[in-house]
Design a protein that fits this description.
Elements (H helix, E strand, L loop, with lengths): L25 H6 L6 H16 L3 H6 L2 H4 L3 H16 L1 H11 L6 H15 L5 H13 L8 H14 L12 H11 L1 H10 L6 E5 L5 H7 L2 E3 L5 E3 L16 E3 L6 H6 L6 E5 L5 H7 L4 E6 L2 H14 L4 E4 L11 E7 L13 H5 L2 H20 L1 E11 L8 H10 L3 E3 L4 H4 L12 E3 L13 E8 L1
Parallel strand pairs: 5-6, 5-8, 6-7, 8-9
Antiparallel strand pairs: 1-3, 1-4, 2-3, 9-12, 10-12, 11-12
Helix pairs in contact: 2-5, 5-7, 6-7, 7-8, 7-9, 8-9, 10-11
Length: about 450
C-alpha cells in the first residue's frame, strides 16, 4: 500500500509548484477532492500506468507537459491518488481478489484500484469515490459494460470496510523473499508493514546550531543527528526559512553519509553522482572545498539554484563519474551510487512495483565500475564513503566485500551510529551501516540505506 539514475533520496528543492502538497500530502489532497473531478482521476490513472510500466516512469509522467497543464488542485489530487494506490497496492489487490470471482479486464481493474484507494486511503466521501469511478467507466467502450461490477464491488467495500490483510501482502513476492533471505522473517515482515505509511518531511539545516529555533518555526521535532521532521504541508517556498536558505528537504537517512565522511574545513571533497545535491549542500556547510559531479545537467541546475539560495559554494561539473577526465585526487570522496532505490519506498513506492530482478544485477555492475573509479580519486591517507539507498545486499554489503578484495589498499573505518545520527541497530559486524525503513519506529521511520566508510592506507 524511483529514484532517478544518479543522486540520493534527498529533494534539494529550489521551488515547489503552488498548491501542490509537499511531504505528508495524501490526506491534504484528499480533503481537497471536492474540486477535483474526472480529469484529475484520469490523470492519476495515467501516472499509475507510467509508474507500473518502468523505473522512472512516474517522474516522467509528473513532468509531462499535459500533466503540468492541469489546474494545480487537479495535479495535487492526481498525484496523491496515484501515491495512495502505489503505497497500498498489495492491500488493494488483496481486497479486490476477495471480491471478484474472476479477473476483469485490466482497464476495469485500474478503475477499481482508483476507487478503493479513495475509499480507504484518502478522505474522499464514499459516494464520491463510487460515483466518480462509475462515471470514469462510462467514458470508455472497454469499461462501460462493467459499470455494474464497479458499482457493486466498491459499494460492498464501502459498506464492509477495509479487509484485514497480513503485512506480506504489501510487498511484491520476489522482493519479500529477498528481504527474508537477507534480514530474516521478522525484519522482512516489519519492512513490509511500513510500506503503506506516509512519511513526514525531513529537513537538513544550513546551521545545525539553529535546530531548536527552526523546529519551533516549522512545527518540527529534532531527530538524532540534527535533521528536523515536520508534518507541515503546503508550498515549500512559503515555509519559514526557505527564502533565507535556512534548510533544504532531505530524508534523515540520506543525511547520514555526508556526516560519515566527516569533512573538515579546507579539505578537498569530491561528491560523485551528486544530484539533486542535498549531500553537496551538507558538505559545503563544513567549509570544505567541494566538487560536485553528475551527468545530468537539469538536475545540476537545481543544485546550482540551491547553492545560491543557501549562499554556499561548490564547484559543479557535468560529467560521467566513471569517465571523468580530471587528474585530481581528494582528501575524501562520497559516492552515492545509482541503485534500485528499494530503500526509498516510503517516499517513492513505485520502486517496489517497477523494479525487476534483472535491474539489480545491471545496477550492481554499474556500482562496481563507479567504486573502482572513485578509488582512484582518493589520495593516500584519504577516505571514501560508499552508499546506496537500496535494501539489496548485492548493491551494498556484497559490493564493499568485493571492492576490498580488489583494493587491498583500502580498509573499513568503522562507523559510530551515535556520531552520525544513525539508528544504533544499523551497525553491522563489519562496521558498516545498514539502515532499514522499519528502524526508528518511535520517530516514524526513515529511508533504507547502506553505507561504508573506507580509509586508504
Amino acid at each position: 500500500m524511483s529514484r532517478a539514475p544518479e543522486g540520493g533520496t534527498e529533494r534539494a528543492v529550489s521551488r515547489s509548484p503552488k498548491s501542490e502538497p509537499v511531504g505528508a500530502d495524501e490526506t491534504q489532497a484528499g480533503n481537497a477532492q471536492a474540486g477535483s473531478g474526472l480529469s484529475a482521476r484520469l490523470a492519476a490513472n495515467d501516472l499509475l500506468r507510467a509508474a507500473f510500466a518502468r523505473r522512472g516512469g512516474l517522474d516522467e509522467a509528473l513532468n509531462d507537459p499535459r500533466f503540468r497543464k492541469l489546474p494545480a488542485q487537479d495535479r495535487a489530487f492526481a498525484r496523491a491518488l496515484a501515491m495512495a494506490v502505489l503505497r497500498n497496492h498489495g492491500r488493494i489487490e488483496a481486497a479486490l481478489d476477495a471480491r471478484l470471482q474472476k479477473p476483469p479486464p485490466e482497464p476495469v481493474r485500474e478503475l477499481l484500484r482508483l476507487g478503493v484507494a479513495q475509499l480507504f486511503a484518502l478522505d474522499v466521501p464514499d459516494f464520491a469515490a463510487v460515483a466518480t469511478t462509475v462515471k470514469l467507466a462510462e467514458r470508455d467502450n472497454a469499461t462501460r459494460p462493467y459499470k455494474g461490477l464497479l458499482n457493486g464491488v466498491l459499494r460492498g467495500l464501502a459498506r464492509d470496510g477495509a479487509p484485514d490483510v497480513p503485512p506480506e501482502a504489501n510487498a511484491p513476492d520476489w522482493l519479500l523473499q529477498r528481504w527474508r533471505a537477507a534480514y530474516g522473517e521478522d525484519r522482512a515482515l516489519a519492512l513490509a508493514a511500513t510500506i503503506p505509511d506516509e512519511p513526514a518531511t525531513d529537513l537538513s539545516l544550513r546551521d545545525p546550531a539553529e535546530a531548536e529555533r527552526w523546529a519551533e518555526e516549522l512545527e518540527a521535532v529534532v531527530l538524532p543527528g540534527g535533521s528536523l521532521r515536520t508534518r507541515r504541508r503546503g508550498d515549500l517556498a512559503e515555509w519559514p526559512g526557505f527564502a533565507e536558505g535556512a534548510w533544504w528537504v532531505q530524508d534523515a537517512a540520506a543525511a547520514i553519509p555526508a556526516r560519515l565522511l566527516a569533512a573538515k574545513p579546507g579539505e578537498t571533497i569530491a561528491d560523485l553522482c551528486a544530484a539533486p545535491g542535498g549531500k553537496t549542500l551538507q558538505l559545503a556547510t563544513t567549509g570544505a572545498e567541494v566538487v560536485a559531479i553528475d551527468r545530468s545537467e537539469p538536475r545540476l541546475k537545481r543544485l546550482r539554484e540551491n547553492l545560491a539560495r543557501m549562499d554556499l559554494k561548490a564547484e559543479v561539473l557535468v560529467a560521467d563519474a566513471e569517465r571523468w577526465d580530471d587528474g585530481r585526487r581528494f582528501d575524501a570522496v562520497l559516492l552515492d551510487a545509482p541503485c534500485s532505490s528499494t530503500g526509498t519506498f516510503r517516499r517513492n513506492p513505485e520502486v517496489l512495483w517497477a523494479t525487476r530482478p534483472p535491474d539489480i544485477a545491471k545496477l550492481a555492475d554499474v556500482q562496481h565500475r563507479l567504486l573502482d573509479a572513485a578509488a582512484k580519486r582518493v589520495r593516500p591517507g584519504g577516505r571514501l564513503v560508499y552508499c546506496v539507498c537500496s535494501l539489496e545486499r548485492e548493491e551494498g554489503e556484497t559490493q564493499v566485500l568485493a571492492f576490498l578484495r580488489r583494493h587491498p589498499e583500502f580498509r573499513t573505518e568503522p562507523a559510530v551510529p551515535a556520531e552520525v545520527g544513525a539508528p544504533d541497530d544499523a551497525l553491522t559486524p563489519e562496521g558498516w551501516l545498514r539502515v532499514l525503513p522499519s528502524q526508528w519506529a518511535e520517530h516514524g521511520g526513515l529511508d533504507g540505506f547502506f553505507m561504508a566508510r573506507l580509509a586508504r592506507s
